[in-house]
């Protein structure tokens, strides 16, 4: 399973409008940037109380990409 697919399935599990989840990958020399767009009202669910959900997603993303090639991975929420 690709990291983008893993991220997609985890985010779709916590939002109210899973059909509106969109993840775009931008790749530079040493960084992978996952840009996340969700439906109206779902940004709060992705962030979670005190940022716990997004913090956990970012930790998992960093751990998953560390094994692949040493590139740094970032998760950005686009509103």
How would you describe the overall organization of this protein?
The chain has 79 residues and is of the alpha+beta class. It has one domain: 2-Layer Sandwich (GMP Synthetase, Chain A, domain 3), CATH 3.30.300.20. Helices cover 43% and strands 25% of the residues. A three-stranded mixed β-sheet has the order 1-2-3, covered by helices on one side. The N and C termini lie far apart (27 Å).
Short key terms for the protein model shown above:
79 residues, alpha+beta, GMP Synthetase, Chain A, domain 3, three-stranded mixed beta sheet, 3 helices, 25% strand, globular
CATH fold annotation = GMP Synthetase, Chain A, domain 3
Count of structural domains: 1
Strand content: 25-35%
Secondary-structure element string? HEEHHE
Named CATH architecture: 2-Layer Sandwich
CATH class: Alpha Beta
How much is the average pLDDT? 91
Indicate the percent of residues in helices.
Answer: 40-55%
Tally of strands: 3
Major β-sheet, in short? 3 strands, mixed
Structural class: alpha+beta
Through-space gap between termini: 27 Å
Strand line-up across the major sheet:
1-2-3
Number of helices: 3
